[in-house]
Protein: PRL2-8
Organism: Streptomyces alfalfae
Amino acid sequence: MAAKPAPPGECPQCWQHAHDKSIHRRLGPREDCPDCVNHMVNGHPTLVPKRPSRWW
């Protein structure tokens, strides 16, 4: 079952990998996810949705 879309202000890839267990199911014990490692090294994408403003 796919996870819900990432809420505003959260990285879509981090959210998906944290909440969708099927992504990491194919990995062996103590095996790192290449997508997660790449994401940790290179950082979050520039398209992270912003949190809604609560000023108004």
User: Anything to note?
Assistant: DSSP finds two helices and no strands in the chain.
